[in-house]
Amino acid sequence: MLKKYIIAFLVSMIPLIELRGGVPIGTGMGLPWHWCLIVCMIGNMIPVPFIFFFARKILIWGSDKKFTGKFFSWCLEKGEKGGKKLQEKAGRGIYVALLLFVGIPLPGTGAWTGTLAASILDLDFKKSIIAVVLGILLAGVIMTLLSQGVKSGITSVF
């Protein structure tokens, strides 16, 4: 059982997959939805402060390196593009927009991209973290509901 929790936890830490993959995997392995949600949320939140303070610096440093340049440049461009798009649409409601950006489980959104965008835009750390954590909670609730709906639909058919 512990192994299943560790898998869900680690999947939730992976960029682009995050909690959106951890919750369905965990509940699909038979973990209780409420414990799976908590474990996946914690896994998704752990990288957030590190991303906020260090990712931008590391991406800038590695963007001109031989082996990492293309990938680091791509990550930096994605964060800048997402951040500018978010700021244009949100204006003064940037933190609400950040919450929704992280919380709506679509490809390319999530805690990693949202935190990177907040870092690139030089947003306030505390307000950004609160918005990202609430966004993770929203995404977790949505993914749990979807996972439980899909799971019960499949089990009722078979």
Number of helical elements: 8
Give the biggest beta sheet. Answer: none
Per the principal axes of the C-alpha atoms, what is the gross shape? globular
Mean of pLDDT: 89
Poorly predicted regions: none
Tell me the structural class: mainly alpha
Structural domains: how many:
1
Short structural description:
This protein is an all-alpha fold and 158 residues long.
Written overview of the protein:
This protein is mainly alpha-helical and 158 residues long. It contains 8 helices and no strands.
Top keywords for this entry?
mainly alpha; globular; 158 residues; 8 helices
SSE topology sketch:
Elements: H1 2-13, H2 18-28, H3 33-45, H4 48-62, H5 69-90, H6 94-103, H7 111-120, H8 125-157
Helix pairs in contact: 1-2, 1-3, 2-3, 2-8, 3-8, 4-5, 4-7, 5-6, 5-7, 6-7, 6-8, 7-8
